[in-house]
Amino acid sequence: MNVLVVGCGALGSLLAFKMVRAKIPVKVLQRQGAQYDALKTGGIRFIDREGRMERVFCEVVPTLDGIEPVDLALVTVKAYQTEEAASVLRGRLSENGVALTLQNGLGNAEILEKTLGAERVAAGICTYGSHRRGPGEIAWGGEGMIRFGPWKAGVDLSWVEALLKQAGMETFLERDPRKALWEKVILNASVNPVSALVRTRNGVLLESPETLALVFQLVEEGVKAAQSAGVEVATEPMKNLVGSVLEKTANNKTSMLQDVESGRRTEIEAILGRLLAYAREKGKELIRMETLYALIRAVEKASEMGPG
Predict the structure, then answer these.
(1) Which residue in 49, 82, 180, 306 is deepest, having the highest Cβ count within 10 Å?
(2) What is the pTM for the complete model shown?
């Protein structure tokens, strides 16, 4: 079984770490730079909830030239890098190989489908919390789960489910992953921009009545966006899910907060941008999401311009 992790940021590093620890052979595709160098020389360093460090090593490659066909590609790059990832994977999957996107936002599976074919694509969500502490090093941010399913109905992915469970991850195989993707994007849209703007870990959002109220108001707007797209998501269960994830990942920094702190481009377009587009098509206004979208874009612009 040839497993490839495409993009070794916080989530990709966590998945690779868990698989290597479970004796599952895995390669990591990572572009050259500080992260690549750290992984090559020092492996993946994981800091657990008690502050203990564990290190594992896996093969790290900058390209797929010369490697064997891939049975399972775990796509964990940023949403705006999905087209590049799809291009890299073209012709690299084995006869029954699958690319499983566990990325944030909407639209990633559709991009992979155009290049790889629907039968070669799976999509899902991952709510495990982890954050980068530096090149090659990640820290535990909370327990979670993986929900995923085939993009084309009827494709048997039970072997992928078994592999993820072997790696010690709570995993649920869905017949159709689309509703799960919508629930995750509403979760991301409700939490990530708020955490990024107030520069705080998830648990603090629970402790502040003002931020928690804003998070739940954003959930309500996210449900409206889903309805605009013809997807039925119930408001109260969605609020319960968001509250539960915040509790379980209280120590975690969202990916958007990590991007803002590092001066990197965020995934705001794939998250809020997508929801706002669906709402606009139906003439609905999502005032809070519009405001947060504008603020995050302003933060990105300021980062691009640099100090002063």
Answers:
(1) 82
(2) 0.93
